[in-house]
Automatic annotation (TrEMBL):
<dbReference type="InterPro" id="IPR016032">
    <property type="entry name" value="Sig_transdc_resp-reg_C-effctor"/>
</dbReference>
<dbReference type="InterPro" id="IPR011990">
    <property type="entry name" value="TPR-like_helical_dom_sf"/>
</dbReference>
<dbReference type="Pfam" id="PF00196">
    <property type="entry name" value="GerE"/>
</dbReference>
<dbReference type="InterPro" id="IPR041664">
    <property type="entry name" value="AAA_16"/>
</dbReference>
<dbReference type="Pfam" id="PF13191">
    <property type="entry name" value="AAA_16"/>
</dbReference>
<dbReference type="GO" id="GO:0006355">
    <property type="term" value="P:regulation of DNA-templated transcription"/>
</dbReference>
<dbReference type="InterPro" id="IPR000792">
    <property type="entry name" value="Tscrpt_reg_LuxR_C"/>
</dbReference>
<keyword id="KW-0547">Nucleotide-binding</keyword>
<protein>
    <submittedName>
        <fullName>Regulatory protein, luxR family</fullName>
    </submittedName>
</protein>
<dbReference type="GO" id="GO:0005737">
    <property type="term" value="C:cytoplasm"/>
</dbReference>
<keyword id="KW-0067">ATP-binding</keyword>
<dbReference type="GO" id="GO:0003677">
    <property type="term" value="F:DNA binding"/>
</dbReference>
<dbReference type="GO" id="GO:0004016">
    <property type="term" value="F:adenylate cyclase activity"/>
</dbReference>
<dbReference type="GO" id="GO:0005524">
    <property type="term" value="F:ATP binding"/>
</dbReference>
<feature type="domain" description="HTH luxR-type">
    <location>
        <begin position="783"/>
        <end position="848"/>
    </location>
</feature>
<dbReference type="InterPro" id="IPR027417">
    <property type="entry name" value="P-loop_NTPase"/>
</dbReference>
<dbReference type="InterPro" id="IPR036388">
    <property type="entry name" value="WH-like_DNA-bd_sf"/>
</dbReference>
Length: 852
């Protein structure tokens, strides 16, 4: 295990070992809870100093400890007088001190389990060690049951000046993130919350690739529980069925006399006892205990907790949890809807959706109006939680109930919501159709907040379709109506749209968007607050201002995370990942794209697929053509230039690099769409630049970003410089590759190899040979650093092969097609010269390729 956040302790232990080598001994006390990394520290390189040997003995958790058990471990290693003394033929203390007369680090682990004779030796050696070339290292848990008293007594006899104390704290979330990496899908924050930063738990979860307790954790925890008295064990089992913490009121009702039993598991480091609640020290340990209980016991304990909570008038969410666990349908039906509405009011969108999904089937025979209202609430919660299919099903159910009562206002509301859902699912035509229907239904009924929202939806879709004048007119009309009605959230929504149109035309005109963000947040509409920041990021990206775009995307992601706006949070993170990809840092791309790819055809799914397609095209992956065709078809379905132009850019780049036909028809369709919208189209200069490269002219009025202006002017040198100024190395190298200049081509080749951009490297090589220039040979940057010459993707496939995954499982893990996974596996076998998967894994192990 890598030692993170242990720099001070490592340095102190190394200093003690060096001091011992110089003849000045001492005592080092390494303390912390079980799994905190004591053994990893003392058995690591810190204690290993040239000329100083390391001897290790361990105390065992036995009902009756072995007399001098750790010294017997040491004697097996050194033999001689110490072994004879332990066999009864000499004084053990004298023999041990004689062993320590040469430079030595003596490690005695887990001395909280030490027998009395071992503790006597600790006293003896500890008082004399300063005069020896040795350091005595003791590890122990600083919160252990009754055995701790003799240890504390022994430690009290050590000379304070000779003692160095090294307490080990739990890891921070940042360290957990470094240990876990991408191995656990729920992310570092979740792992940190479950483990409390305990390194043992963290590494076990990382190895298992899940946040469910793996067998190693269950065994460790249940072993400690089994050692408790029956009363203490009963308390631990009761607390295990209560997430987070068990209130003392519940414990008083269910297990009278619990405070007496609590001391034992508290000393064992299992529970923490506060003035009003008892909780597990680590949530992962709670889950491990709960999972080992028989189902009947879990149900019985949950029923007892539920009864106590009902008497105490507890939060509906707590009642829902325990009613479900106890199988009490009546209690669940009574609590689910209040819990859903409370969660929605608090902005807890994921929890609200989960509660609504429970409540609706349990609602029974409701009047049509009530059933419609409940279904609309479910639709809203599902959308905010990013669950579009559930939202569509709910809004359809609401519309059916409204039709039964001929409620045209309700039907208008449903049409507006359905419009948003269709847009999010990537169906632009259906979205526009439903928005128009919403206005048609609501307008005859007079001014209302529902009509203002419908007009705001029409304005938003006009903005997304590059119909700037229509978007501004409808957006301002919707905002004015919302202002008259005192509907601050709808007014903010409309101004997010008009502000986006303004920033699309001028990237410095961001005041309206910023004001709309603040107004939406103040009104409690955090979805619109995030949308304002996402749109701000994209208008900046449109004008090739990556710094401003990244800052806005980071703000959007943070606001989305803080307020559970899952529908847009992934989109914001993907925007940041795309910027990182363009900057030559693909680390975030795989993580962000995997989280969103395949998410019900949403716009986030399309953006994720676009990122993965760009990465595949630029690396020359076997599935690059397949990915590009897939995103092209999905972008066409939206009918929006903001989806179409990035695909056009990628298709033009692919044709330019590989020497294939330009996507002229695709460029012509994009230009036709821009002209039909009555404006310059998405970014004007951006569309014009890439369309011109495909042989399609598009006259765009107004300014363009420097890189786009250079492309329009046919100046690849200026384009390369402009992209270089943005910090986008691949884009710079692409346009350098168009120059008949030896230095430019050499730089382009070096960059392409460093980025692992095989197609671009091949293009540059061809051009250099055409010009009669010498080509420096070398493997791609991604393979040069790998001992077996594997690309980063192939190394990842090798690790998955070592896990025993099939091609289909590898495809699912990497979000690629089974055919592509097969290509990768074949390439790995070829690189390793292996005839099969097992042989490849065996050879990789022999070469040490699986150790990192």
């Amino acid at each position: 295990m890598r030692l993170l956040e242990r720099g001070e302790q490592t340095a102190a232990l190394a200093a003690a070992a060096r001091s011992a080598a110089a003849g000045r001994g001492g005592v080092v006390l390494v303390t912390g809870e079980a799994g905190i990394g004591k053994t990893a520290l003392v058995t690591g390189p810190a204690a290993r100093v040239p000329g100083v040997r390391v001897l290790t003995g361990r105390c065992d958790d036995l009902a009756t400890p072995r007399p001098l058990g750790p010294l017997r471990d040491v004697a097996r290693e050194v033999g001689g007088p110490l072994a004879l003394a332990l066999a009864g033929r000499g004084d053990v203390a004298d023999a041990l001190l004689a062993e320590l007369s040469r430079p030595t680090v003596l490690v005695l682990e887990d001395v909280h389990w030490a027998d009395d004779a071992t503790l006597d030796l600790v006293r003896t050696v500890g008082r004399r060690v300063t005069g020896l070339p040795a350091v005595l290292v003791l590890t122990y848990r600083d919160a252990e049951p009754d055995g701790g008293a003799p240890l504390r007594s022994a430690l009290a006899t050590l000379p304070p000046a000779a003692v160095t104390r090294l307490p080990l704290a739990p890891l921070s979330e940042a360290a957990v993130a470094e240990l876990v990496g991408e191995q656990v899908g729920d992310g570092a924050a979740r792992v940190h919350a479950l483990t409390g930063g305990n390194p043992f738990y963290v590494t076990e979860l990382a190895a298992a690739g899940t946040t469910a307790p793996p067998p190693s954790v269950r065994d460790a925890v249940t072993g400690r529980v089994a050692a408790l008295s029956p009363a203490a064990r009963a308390l631990v089992e009761l607390v295990s069925v209560v997430p987070a913490r068990a209130g003392t009121g519940v414990l008083d009702a269910v297990l009278p006399g619990w405070p007496v039993a609590a001391a034992e598991p508290e000393r064992a480091g299992l529970l923490t006892v506060g003035p009003d609640a008892v909780a597990f020290r680590h949530e992962l340990a709670r889950t491990a205990v709960a999972e080992t209980l028989p189902a009947a016991d879990r149900r019985r304990l949950s029923a007892a907790v539920l009864a106590a909570l009902q008497r105490l008038g507890a939060d509906p969410a707590d009642l829902v949890h325990h009613a479900e666990a106890a199988g009490d349908v009546a209690a669940l039906a009574a609590a689910a809807l209040p819990a859903a509405r409370a969660a929605a009011a608090a902005g807890a969108t994921r929890e609200a959706f989960a509660h609504y999904r429970r409540a609706v089937p349990l609602a029974g025979a409701l009047p049509d109006a009530e059933r419609a209202a409940l279904s609309e609430e479910l639709a809203g919660a599902a959308y905010l939680a990013g669950q579009v299919p559930d939202a569509l099903a709910a809004v359809d159910a609401a519309a059916a109930a409204h039709r039964a009562t001929d409620d045209r206002r309700g039907l208008g509301r449903c049409a507006r919501v359905r419009s948003r859902l269709h847009w999010y699912a990537g169906d632009g035509a259906a979205a526009r159709r439903e928005a128009a229907a919403a206005v048609a239904l609501l307008e005859p009924l007079g001014d209302s907040a529902d009509l203002a929202r419908a007009r705001a939806a029409v304005a938003q879709l006009a903005m997304l379709g590059d119909r700037a004048e229509e978007a501004l007119a409808e957006g301002r009309r919707a905002a004015a109506l919302a202002d008259r009605l005192g509907d601050a959230a709808t007014a903010a929504h409309a101004r997010v749209t008009t502000g986006t149109v303004e920033a699309q035309a001028d990237p410095t005109a961001t005041a309206t968007l910023e004001d709309a963000h603040r107004a939406a947040a103040a009104a409690g509409d955090h979805h619109e607050a995030v949308r304002a920041l996402v749109n701000l990021a994209w208008t900046q990206l449109l004008w090739l201002r990556p710094g401003a775009a990244s800052a806005a995307a980071d703000r959007a992601a943070a606001h989305a995370a803080a307020h559970e706006v899952d529908a847009l949070g992934g989109y914001a993170r993907l925007t940041t990942a795309w910027l990182r990809l363009r900057a030559g840092d693909p680390v975030d791309v795989e993580t962000a794209a995997r989280a969103e790819a395949g998410r019900d055809g949403s716009v986030s799914d399309l953006l994720a697929r676009t990122l993965l397609a760009e990465r595949a095209v630029r690396r020359g992956d076997p599935d690059a053509d397949e990915r590009l065709a897939d995103v092209a078809a999905r972008a066409d379905r939206t009918g929006e230039l903001q989806r179409l132009v990035p695909v056009l850019e990628l298709a033009v780049e692919d044709a330019l690099v590989r020497g294939g036909p330009m996507p002229t028809a695709r460029a012509a369709r994009a230009v036709e769409l821009a002209r039909a919208a009555g404006g310059a189209g998405w970014g004007g200069g951006r569309l014009a630049a890439w369309a011109s490269l495909a042989g399609v002219r598009h006259d765009a009025d107004g300014p363009a970003a420097p890189a786009h202006a250079a492309l329009l002017a046919g100046d690849p040198r200026a384009a390369a410089d402009a992209f270089g100024a943005l910090g986008w190395p691949h884009d710079r190298a692409l346009w350098l590759s168009s120059l008949d200049d030896a230095d430019a081509l050499a730089e382009a080749l070096e960059t392409a190899r460093a980025l692992g951009a095989a197609p671009l490297a091949a293009r540059v090589t061809r051009r250099m040979r055409e010009l009669g220039l010498a080509v420096r040979h070398g493997r791609r940057g991604t393979t040069r650093a790998h001992p077996a010459g594997l690309t980063a993707r192939q190394a990842e496939v090798l690790r998955l092969l070592a896990e025993g995954l099939t091609n289909a499982e590898i495809a699912a893990r990497l979000v690629v097609s089974p055919r592509t996974a097969e290509h990768h596996v074949t390439a790995v076998l070829g690189r390793l010269g292996a005839g099969g998967r097992r042989e490849a894994v065996r050879r990789a192990a022999e070469l040490g390729l699986l150790s990192s």
